[in-house]
Every structure is written in structure tokens, then in C-alpha cells.
Amino acid sequence: MTHKNTPIIKKQVQELLKQLPPIERLNILEPLCDKYRAESRKEVEKDITEWSRKKGIPRIKTDY
User: Is residue 27 over pLDDT 80?
Assistant: First the structure.
């Protein structure tokens, strides 16, 4: 799928979620959010590491 389809998919997912009670929505979304946050942090950390290596700057790990 391409990025241009993202708004369409987002709308479809929102419509599907509207049919569920709030607790079920949370049961579905919370694990996914945790997974995607972890992926995002890895990506950011990788970018920072590459940038630091290129600049020769030591990295002090921080929490995002």
C-alpha cells in the first residue's frame, strides 16, 4: 500500500472501530500502539546513532 491510501485506510479502520464498545477498542489498539511506539523509537535511535557516528559525537541516551 502506498502513503496516498493512508487516509482511506484510516477512515475504514475508524468506521470499524466505531462498531465496537470502548473497552474492545482499547483491547485492540493498546497492544498495537505499544508495538508501533517501540518500532518508532528504534527508528529514531538508529537515525541518531548514524548521525552521531558521522559527526563523531558521543551519544548520551535519553528517553523520548
Answer: yes
Number of Cβ within 10 Å of residue 25's Cβ equals: 14
Cell of 11: 477512515
Cα–Cα distance, 15 to 9 (Å, whole number)? 10
Domain ranges of the chain: 3-55
- Give the residue among 20, 52, 41 at the shortest CA–CA distance from 28: 20
Residue with cell 482511506: 8
State pLDDT tens for residues 9-20: 999 999 999 999
Which residues are CB-neighbours of 26 under 8 A, at least 6 positions away? none
